[in-house]
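Standup, Tuesday
Yesterday: got the pipeline producing structure tokens again.
Today: sanity-check two examples.
Blockers: none.

Example 1:
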Amino acid sequence: MRNVPQVWIAHGFIVVSLIGVADARPPAGDTLAVAREKMCVTEGAIDQSARGRLTVDSPKMRAYVNAGPSQEVESRFRYLGPTAEASRLGSGESRRQFGLKLRAQDPCNLVYVMWRIDPESKLVVSVKRNPTAHTSAECGNRGYQNIKPRGSLEVPRLRPGDAHSLRAEMKGEELRVVVDNSVVWEGSVGPQALGLTGPVGVRSDNVRLEFDLTTAETSDRHHDHPPDCKSGPGASD
């Protein structure tokens, strides 16, 4: 299949990118389904439905995969609508969103790929970097930097009942985000993320979901015995 150029206008210039469906094939190698017991939930709750899917009904959910160093992660999810109660971010803003975490070293140092639903539908990649802080009490909501992509496409507006896939692949500084087999974001997250070492994870704010999570299999045995799960206010990002 040939790459079909995607065209958009930025700052008065027409930019052509070869991101698109043809570039969005799944990575080579095996993938591993992440079971609930392999996830460390630092805030909120992740339950399991009768069909075996992971479910979220908490205003704030934060979790990471407590095994493996892979930085390729995918979630196939169904958006079920807003939660009955709503929480605000540290900035005071109310937002509905779901996304993935990469290189989640600690609550103050990680990379986010967030699918925002409300008040604006868009995909946002950000790095949270606080080199001298390692708990939520130390960094709060400081250190966020939104990253501009080399190329991007709009994501669908989510409505209750919609099902989609969201995948992030990170190699060095380079990040690629795939939605429903189309590359919607690609670019460099910058050198500030290179020094981060940590697992992948998930995050949601004010949304109800059911989802599956998979990561790329790795031969690195360094993480055969992951650290104990640490939860609570200090560990939540």
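Example 2:
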Amino acid sequence: MTQATAHDYTIGLDAFPKYNRIMARLAEYCHTSPKIAAAVFSALSPNNDYHGNLRDANTLLTAAHRGQTLADFTVSTYGQNKRKAWRIAHGEDPLELIVAKKTRSFFLNIHNPNDPFPVTDDGHMVNVWRCKRESLVGLRFPHRLYDEIANGVRELAEQNKLVPCQVQSIIWMTWRRVHGIKTTTQTEFWDADMIAARLGYV
């Protein structure tokens, strides 16, 4: 946090609220609720790039609204995640289906960015925690480490009077800048990225 710039703070503070606004727009576009849109988006997210994730969520929710079958469309993520998201789109409880810590926290952070508990840890956060940039390919970390990092983020959030997901996002933006990591950020999600994701609205 001490290395974060004003820009890192600005982007980090609005990262999950922006996700929340995007899911509200996606829900409107696909005739569903923001909660379901956020849950479907999250369920499809493992090892899925941001644009692909948006396209897949749009594709699946549109198919569900049109009464199509699971076999009528494809997504760019795992089949088990597609099936899970499909069940959510048809009314099953997201919290009964999204059980992996990272994906569950991602959903909860998107659905309610003010929730003081969930923290979306990923490989980048593991690198931050270890103060060492290592390859994320094949990275696995135990529940104990996930909880340790999440608790550390919550402590930082309390110290800085922020929500944990804001702290996590600020740390990620700072780490990305310091190490020159190229990626699509949430700041681009509203206009150009919406068009790139073929969602058809700006």
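Quick observation on example 2: The mean pLDDT is 88. The chain has ten helices and no strands.
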